Structure to design on (303 residues):
């Protein structure tokens, strides 16, 4: 890709008195519209695709109502002048997408949205065959963007400035980011993935990385879309204390769990922890909208 990333800072997050130091790498600032790990997941698949110079280019991908990957792919299509098609989980969204911040943003950036039932969406192999036959020249990106070439892009989240840390922490959805960090981490580093879905991702991770330098921690808080009042309070307090916006589906759940682990002294004394902020804050608008309808607490941050 010839869309260049911004250099992102690493900042310390002072917390607790357990003898560990925690830092956060602001990958959410890597690009103004293609946030965090999505930028690096798309980097090689799109680069390789553009080099083919197909006659009728098209980006196709999959996602749900708050999908960061859908939003990022739509922006990328607009930047390159390439049409994009989003296969969206949930037929009920077809009549209300204009009220959904993520989907309306994708539409604004030129993505055509096709809404399918959850049954059809789950059967990806059949769906892929239909799409490949109908759009033979398209780049079809998997849900969440995780693929072997996407995993390769994670190496760019590491470098000289990340070598001095004992633990590398990331949220885990489809497993691509953790897989890449595992592949390219230093020999002495342990990668910790905080699972924010109930999906079993271990098989996918094992297909991407041969190394066993990682651990998975449950952090879903009941499921991918589940957002509790306690989590909302945590995200609001974190922004007040550290001036960093966390999203409620990935980084918020991860950071809340890391704080709990530090409180329980689950990291060895003297450890240096590096947490990757993988973006996704665009989803706050949709989550707040859903919570307002239920008269629940909202994240008090303007996006």
């Amino acid at each position: 890709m010839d869309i260049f990333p911004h250099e992102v800072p690493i900042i310390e997050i002072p917390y607790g008195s357990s003898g560990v130091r925690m830092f956060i790498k602001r990958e959410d600032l890597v690009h103004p519209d293609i946030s965090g790990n999505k930028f690096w997941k798309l980097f090689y698949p799109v680069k390789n695709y553009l080099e083919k110079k197909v006659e009728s280019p098209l980006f196709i991908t999959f996602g749900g109502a708050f999908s960061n990957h859908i939003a990022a792919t739509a922006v990328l299509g607009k930047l390159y002048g390439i049409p994009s098609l989003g296969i969206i989980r949930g037929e009920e969204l077809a009549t209300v997408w204009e009220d959904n911040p993520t989907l309306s943003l994708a539409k604004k950036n030129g993505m055509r949205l096709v809404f399918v039932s959850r049954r059809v969406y789950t059967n990806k192999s059949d769906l892929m065959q239909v799409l490949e036959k109908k759009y033979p020249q398209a780049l079809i990106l998997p849900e969440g963007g995780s693929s072997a070439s996407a995993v390769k892009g994670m190496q760019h989240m590491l470098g000289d400035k990340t070598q001095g840390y004992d633990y590398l922490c990331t949220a885990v959805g489809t497993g691509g980011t953790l897989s890449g960090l595992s592949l390219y981490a230093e020999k002495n580093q342990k990668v910790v993935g905080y699972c924010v879905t109930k999906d079993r991702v271990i098989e996918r991770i094992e297909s991407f990385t041969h190394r066993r330098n990682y651990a998975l921690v449950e952090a879903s808080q009941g499921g991918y879309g589940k957002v509790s009042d306690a989590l909302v309070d945590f995200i609001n307090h974190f922004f007040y204390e550290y001036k960093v916006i966390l999203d409620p589906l990935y980084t918020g759940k991860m950071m809340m769990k890391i704080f709990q682990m530090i409180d329980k002294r689950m990291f060895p004394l003297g450890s240096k922890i590096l947490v990757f902020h993988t973006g996704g804050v665009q989803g706050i608008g949709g989550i707040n909208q859903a919570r307002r309808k239920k008269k629940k607490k909202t994240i008090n941050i303007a996006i």
Notes: The chain is about 35% helix and 15% strand. The mean pLDDT is 94. The beta strands are 10-12, 21-25, 59-63, 84-89, 111-116, 139-140, 167-172, 190-195, 214-218, 272-276.
